[in-house]
């Protein structure tokens, strides 16, 4: 019985070593700790960048507040200008009405002057026909008595004064007409100038308002872009934290494996003369057609898009499509799930860390319909981790698969073409 237990323990140790896909054999604890230190450094840098983004957002918010205050002032100025334009327009209409009234008075005055001119012309003709002043002497000399003479003399004086008054009134009316006309034209020109100035001011204010609108839209767009960048940084920070946790788990597993391997080896040495037992591992078998190499095919389907340039951008992975229902997605190699979550771009996505022949790799499985593993889980090559889907920034049901030599990062600087490394359909 003791021999059987020992054999089972040794087999279990060997199975654990194989299960963690090279974490036990190829990646030393020291190298794993170095990777973890590098990740912590990247986390610190991202945290600093997120702080900078927060400062930029606060600065943009302050600028937006200033712009909105300026817009409020401009709106008030526009309202005041509109009122002035309305008032001046009313004044202009009143002036035009006054012009119409004065033009009517001018017409009447001209008619009166014309009548006086006719009266003077009539008197002039009488003067000419009767010899001018002689006719007045004839009037006086024709008096019947002294009283009649006085009456006639007064009448002549009155007529002569009336002629003088007519001439003076004629000049006064003419002067008044000219002054009123000049004053009217001056008032009209002044109102038109003020109205034109107000219209120009209104145009300037509206232009300033449009500029402020554009500036506010630009600031809001910048804030939105920084918010999006911040979200990407936060997502990357979360992923780095998950990578750090995965590596920490790998370190603990490696330490445990080494301890168990040492204990098993010591027990084997102490019982070297004993026979072999018949125990066997009962670990679950993978459901995928696992290849013999370090990696296996992540999904069945049609290879639809390769690594590299695509639609004016870089495609950092490959696409495998399959219209069938419930198409399983498999882990390409043994490893530790770094993160399993719903991303705005990747949709349902799983990140897995692997250590193969001393090299750390990260695989990404995106746009899945569902995920069947959680962050921190240890997975085997060919183990189902989800179902093919069309979530996130995706057009059509497919698996987007990425292979990174080292850790995943937002710039995807470690992405490599999986074709030739990972078996494809």
From TrEMBL:
Specify the signal sequence span. Answer: 1-26
Enumerate the SUPFAM superfamilies for this protein. Duplicated hybrid motif
**Regions of compositional bias (Polar residues) in chain numbering:** 282-296
Q: Which UniProt keywords apply?
A: Coiled coil, Signal
Task: Tell me the ranges covered by the Peptidoglycan hydrolase PcsB coiled-coil domain, including all copies.
Answer: 106-179
Which InterPro entries does its entry note?
Cell_wall_metabolism_enzyme, Dup_hybrid_motif, M23ase_b-sheet_dom, PcsB_CC
One GO MF term attached to the UniProt entry: metalloendopeptidase activity
Coiled-coil spans are 32-130, 160-250
Bias kind Low complexity: ranges: 263-273
Tell me where in this chain the M23ase beta-sheet core domain is found.
314-409
Which residue intervals make up region (Disordered)? 263-296
This protein is called what? Peptidoglycan hydrolase CwlO-like protein
